[in-house]
Amino acid sequence: MDNVHLIPYRVEEITIAAAQIPQGVQMIQAPAVWEQARHGRGNVLAILDTGCQRDHPDLQGQIIDGRNFTPDYRGDTANFEDNHGHGTHVAGTAAASLRQEGGIAGVAPGAKLLVLKVLNSEGSGDYAGIINGINYAIDWEGPNGEKTSVISMSLGGPEDVAELHRAVKRAVDSGIPIVCAAGNEGDNSPATDEYAYPGAYPEVIQVGAVDFNRKIASFSNSNDEIDLVAPGVRIYSTFLGGKYATLSGTSMATPHVTGALALIKNIAEEEFARKLTEAELYAQLVRRTIPLGYPKTAEGNGLLALDALEKFEQLFKQVNSSNIRADQKNSG
């Protein structure tokens, strides 16, 4: 039974030309931390979606592995080719390569992609496929012992399914953050709740959408489990046929956070000189948000801003050193 679906989204335009660094990637300040975060290298992002165009110039070198959990391609589990477009777009925002000769850059261009096709050509799937996809991502191991760093799901359904919740909790208990779209059933009022699962589970990182003016998108779901917001209006990324498309939706906000977690993981784990738990990674993510002034039900902790913490610490050091100089002057 097809009862899980793509979070509805809008196709704004499809083009052949590419912009080097999309506005959404710039808005969350990813390029400012690329060097420090080693571009997200060493991380594998599991994208549970409609698949991915495997030979897209910006993605072909990024895909480490994949699997098909749908009846598409006669159920051939090895064929995870995207026959819809949505998954290719999401994958590009998360981790498109930074090519010298053009193309676009994703948030974590050094990360690899584990493409798990759990939705068919119509953008629909069943809960069993999603659950199997999550469990596969948890247990997956790459050719050199790689493991999944983050699970990303720009999909949802109306039902709270116990087995789905168990799979989500298993991932989090295994140290893997799960990033989910909030949904696009919003009525432009933070006072009313709209829920889509698995996004509404407290264990996942639920992402709402803002536009480039930092305004909450009118379609973005609001509820008491929203964790943060990211760009989700007119997002430019990879698309079928080696092309690029501009799409809108919380589906587009989600991979910004997925890629960001790869960058944050590299920065924080070097700083602490150890692996971080899922809860610690979440705490590091929240530290890199800026409140926008909306109710928590709309924006959670605020807008993702990867360089905000560094800027704040620099400001704190400047203020601190000024106070020390003033104290020395006064005591002299």
From TrEMBL:
<feature type="domain" description="Peptidase S8/S53">
    <location>
        <begin position="40"/>
        <end position="289"/>
    </location>
</feature>
<keyword id="KW-0378">Hydrolase</keyword>
<comment type="similarity">
    <text>Belongs to the peptidase S8 family.</text>
</comment>
<feature type="active site" description="Charge relay system">
    <location>
        <position position="86"/>
    </location>
</feature>
<protein>
    <submittedName>
        <fullName>S8 family peptidase</fullName>
    </submittedName>
</protein>
<keyword id="KW-0645">Protease</keyword>
<dbReference type="InterPro" id="IPR022398">
    <property type="entry name" value="Peptidase_S8_His-AS"/>
</dbReference>
<dbReference type="InterPro" id="IPR051048">
    <property type="entry name" value="Peptidase_S8/S53_subtilisin"/>
</dbReference>
<dbReference type="InterPro" id="IPR034202">
    <property type="entry name" value="Subtilisin_Carlsberg-like"/>
</dbReference>
<dbReference type="InterPro" id="IPR000209">
    <property type="entry name" value="Peptidase_S8/S53_dom"/>
</dbReference>
<dbReference type="InterPro" id="IPR015500">
    <property type="entry name" value="Peptidase_S8_subtilisin-rel"/>
</dbReference>
<dbReference type="InterPro" id="IPR023828">
    <property type="entry name" value="Peptidase_S8_Ser-AS"/>
</dbReference>
<keyword id="KW-0720">Serine protease</keyword>
<dbReference type="Pfam" id="PF00082">
    <property type="entry name" value="Peptidase_S8"/>
</dbReference>
<dbReference type="InterPro" id="IPR036852">
    <property type="entry name" value="Peptidase_S8/S53_dom_sf"/>
</dbReference>
<feature type="active site" description="Charge relay system">
    <location>
        <position position="49"/>
    </location>
</feature>
<feature type="active site" description="Charge relay system">
    <location>
        <position position="251"/>
    </location>
</feature>
